[in-house]
Amino acid sequence: xxxxxxxxxxxxxxxxxxxxxxxxxxxxxxxxxxxxxxxxxxxxxxxxxxxxxxxxxxxxxxxxxxxxxxxxxxxxxxxxxxxxxxxxxxxxxxxxxxxxxxxxxxxxx
Length: 109
Description:
By secondary structure, the protein is mainly alpha-helical. The chain has one domain (2-104). The protein has helices at 2-38, 40-45, 57-94, 98-104. It is elongated and about 80 Å long. The mean pLDDT is 89.
């Protein structure tokens, strides 16, 4: 029974609860870093504020398309990063089952 507990049950507890929590924290940290790096929230918040506080008609005219383009491209990049992060976390969760799949579906050489 000690062998079962030490090598089988403890592995699953370690993989999903201890390391899974650490991996999820790292992914959330990376996601928030990318969000801050892309500067999406301030650009969206100041969408109709002139760039560099230039209140001339040129500054007002240039600000909206520039920031709107920034927000659209940044949102697309953020969506792509989020999908990749979710696929990576799902792959992490399914990784311990890879030997079972290799046993069920052996590759013929």
